[in-house]
Design goal:
It is a single chain. The protein contains eight helices and 14 strands. It is of the alpha/beta class. The strands form two sheets. The protein has a seven-stranded mixed β-sheet with strand order 6-5-4-3-2-1-14. A seven-stranded mixed β-sheet has the order 7-8-9-10-11-12-13, with helices on one face. The radius of gyration is 18 Å and the shape is globular. The protein starts with a strand and ends in a 13-residue tail after the last strand.
Length: 273
């Protein structure tokens, strides 16, 4: 069964030529889930040959612009291209008001249903959506506005164990969500800064690469994918080397990357020195 994510945007805050704002398309055996929808996401969907009308679920981590400003345009384009199938949108409380206001102000009328799943004061991990292929869970992170991470868990078939992909951005350093991502096959974590900017990261409630690697180690995940890279890093290898010194099984996302969620069980990592 196919289970992979395609990175549409891996940058933080501002889009650049090299890195667009946050967005990924997860493909789980044909079931497509959009994770975040920063500015220009719909163009990135075309550039990287994803199927816009194939998106059935959209998960927004929080209502900062670099994570959802692309959503009204995407919804409008879905309508203009003749969509009739419903779309599930999972997002913090307020998303329905924002979208409704924009669609009303622009005189837009959709020929498909938007089914909102608004998250409000969610504690712990909650099952939000379930279908024949997967379960989607949400859990709180620590940021300046209500923010949620997502765990996508495939339903096992035959003798194959289920694989898990966890997507967590934006967040400051907290271990509160580690029980929800323990043993994940792939963990995507923000890595906005390196250790030299640790005080800035703490102030803005973001992670350094070393902190992301430490969290991945503590969660005993199989692989760590770093994303939400600050535009100040023209050569992001400095972030990667910092993370790999703590958690060797780390890669850094780049726009257009396709990252597989493998079946392998999480490997034991060496202790942090």
């Amino acid at each position: 069964m196919n289970f992979y994510t395609t990175v549409l945007g891996s940058g933080a805050a501002l889009p650049t030529v090299a890195r667009h704002c946050s967005g990924q398309v997860v493909n789980l055996n044909g079931h497509r889930i959009l994770l975040d929808c920063g500015e220009n996401t719909q163009t990135q969907i075309r550039v990287y040959h994803q199927k816009m009308q194939g998106l059935s679920t959209i998960c927004i981590t929080h209502l900062h612009g670099d994570h959802f400003f692309g959503l009204p345009g995407l919804i409008s384009s879905m309508h203009l291209c003749g969509r009739t199938e419903p779309v599930d949108i999972i997002a913090p409380e307020g998303i329905s008001q924002v979208l409704s206001t924009i669609l009303t102000a622009s005189g837009s009328h959709l020929e498909f249903e938007i089914r909102y799943h608004e998250l409000s004061h969610t504690e712990g991990m909650q099952l939000i959506l379930e279908n024949l292929r997967c379960r989607i869970y949400a859990f709180p992170l620590m940021h300046s506005v209500p923010t949620y991470g997502y765990l996508i868990e495939e339903k096992p078939r035959g003798k194959n164990p289920s694989r898990k992909y966890a997507y967590c951005t934006d967040t400051g350093y907290t271990e509160s969500f580690l029980p929800f991502v323990q043993g994940a096959n792939l963990l995507c974590l923000e890595s906005t800064f390196n250790t030299a900017f640790a005080s800035v990261a703490a102030e803005k409630q973001h992670l350094t690469a070393a902190q992301a690697a430490t969290l991945a180690h503590k969660a005993n995940v199989q692989h760590l994918l770093l994303t939400h890279i600050s535009a100040r890093y023209k050569e992001p290898e400095t972030l990667l080397s910092e993370a790999q010194a703590i958690f060797p099984s780390t890669t850094i996302a780049a726009d257009g990357d396709r990252i597989e969620v493998h079946y392998n069980k999480p490997a034991e990592q060496p202790p942090i020195s």
